[in-house]
Design a protein that fits this description.
ten-stranded mixed β-sheet, alpha/beta, about 450 residues
């Protein structure tokens, strides 16, 4: 692959905090690695090692964050959690992927400054996995690292598969957690699977808290009653509360570490008052928290484009819902909860997303996305790879994950029917222990 060189522009002195030693690095990289255009981006990364003798000699591991559109972990806890599990064996580079955190972050204001929606779409087209891999390669070379390992959480696993396709010689081993994505470019297949998973997870949730199904129905009733009366409620950002707003509570179902949050929210969702029922201020705050598009617009803008290797995605989640899953439509009697399904209506209802609607439509209709993967390279893979697959994952479907695993030579799967999409943070020792053991065992056989 073509990765034009990165320039290391600054590096802060190291600081020590709770068993970890960290410094911040900034790089300058091309917007387009494949041509000679002068436009450049700034990349931010944080290098972290253990506060222990000899840690500066340990091999490097690159962490690839989930998303798309979110910055890497900020290690406020020092050598704790999954980072703490890695530091005895690796120096870790926490890279803010382009467009996130300190890496030329994409916000509504930066997009407006680019001009027309067409200019914005051309710019955003350079923020997918292949571009992130090219950035990683440029950074690796700038730091004079011969080879490194990777840990990819969720979307970071998708990026890992692109890395294995485009620059496998740079990789020592790859660990993937909840991130064996669909590699054929069929976004509709992703949503057919994940709608079904969401329905299963919702049913499981109501089996734990049967009273919450009636509470959720009451929330929908209040939303509809207030709209009919001409007094709908609004979130703090000014967005009107609709059925779809409430459906976004389904994001709580995506992890064992947060699923209880849905129960706690529904417990005090509605205030029954003489003048009429309303949604509580606390519940409105929970809804707003599920819809923080202003800080991370790439997350929704690229939600479907991260799957395409050519054809337009054409609002795949919306098409699949209308054709096969009407119980998820907002006019259903009690609409089912939604997960990571970006919909055209989001760009009508959300105050933060409304200005981005022309851009979102252009991205949905975009033809000729560059290929994200090279199946022939993955089929001949020699890099030790291990992936955690969660049986009931509502974001990355098990069956699609196993099909992808079968397409990567030598990839070893560790499956859990107890952990969920947040398994890396929920039980880091269990997950990373299993993946490191599998790749340790694979290394002699595959090299």
């Amino acid at each position: 692959m073509i990765a034009r060189p990165a320039t290391l522009t600054s590096r802060t002195p190291e600081t020590t905090w709770r068993g970890a030693v960290a410094s911040s690095l900034r790089f300058s990289v091309p917007l387009r690695h494949g041509d000679g255009s002068p436009e450049r981006l700034e990349l931010f990364a944080r290098a972290v090692r253990a506060d222990a003798p000899g840690s500066e000699e340990l091999p490097w591991l690159l962490f690839l964050q989930g998303g798309p559109g979110f910055p890497a972990l900020r290690p406020a806890g020092g050598a704790s959690g999954w980072l703490g599990e890695l530091l005895p064996r690796f120096q870790v580079l926490l890279l803010d992927q382009r467009g996130t955190g300190g890496s030329s972050a994409v916000e509504a204001a930066t997009l407006r400054a680019l001009g027309t929606p067409e200019a914005q779409a051309e710019y955003i087209s350079h923020f997918r996995a292949t571009d992130i891999v090219a950035d990683a390669e440029a950074v690796r070379q700038a730091l004079a690292i011969e080879r490194w390992s990777t840990l990819g959480q969720s979307y970071g696993g998708f990026i890992t598969l692109s890395y294995l396709s485009l620059a496998p010689a740079s990789l020592e081993r790859c660990l993937i957690t909840g991130g064996l994505g669909e590699i054929r470019g069929d976004a509709a297949a992703v949503y057919r699977a994940t709608y079904a998973r969401m329905a299963e997870r919702e049913a499981e949730f109501f089996s734990w808290f049967p009273e919450d199904e009636a509470r959720l129905q009451r929330v929908y009733d209040v939303v509809r009653e207030r709209r009919a009366a001409g007094s709908p409620q609004h979130l703090a950002d000014g967005s009107e509360v609709t059925e779809t707003t409430v459906q976004r509570l389904g994001m709580f179902l995506g992890g064992n570490g947060r699923v209880q949050g849905l129960h706690f929210a529904l417990e005090s969702a509605v205030v029954e008052a003489p003048e009429g029922a309303r949604l509580s201020a606390g519940f409105l705050g929970v809804l707003q928290g599920q819809l923080d598009h202003a800080g991370h617009p790439l997350y929704w803008l690229l939600q479907e484009s991260i799957y395409s290797s050519g054809a337009p995605t054409a609002w795949a989640a919306s098409r699949v819902r209308a054709a096969d899953f009407p119980e998820f439509l907002p006019n259903a009697p009690r609409p089912r909860l939604l997960g990571e399904m970006a919909l055209p209506s989001d760009y009508e209802e959300s105050v933060a997303l409304r200005p981005l609607a022309p851009l979102a439509w252009l991205l949905a209709e975009h033809e000729g996305w560059p290929a994200l993967y090279r199946p022939e390279v993955l089929a001949e893979n020699t890099v030790p790879v291990a992936a955690a697959v969660y049986t009931h994952d509502v974001y990355v479907d098990r069956e699609l994950s196993l099909a992808t695993a079968a397409a990567v030579r030598g990839l070893r799967v560790w499956e859990s029917d107890q952990l969920h999409h947040d398994g890396l943070s929920d039980e880091p020792g269990t997950v990373l222990g299993a993946l490191l053991e599998l790749t340790d065992a694979a290394a002699p056989a595959q090299r």
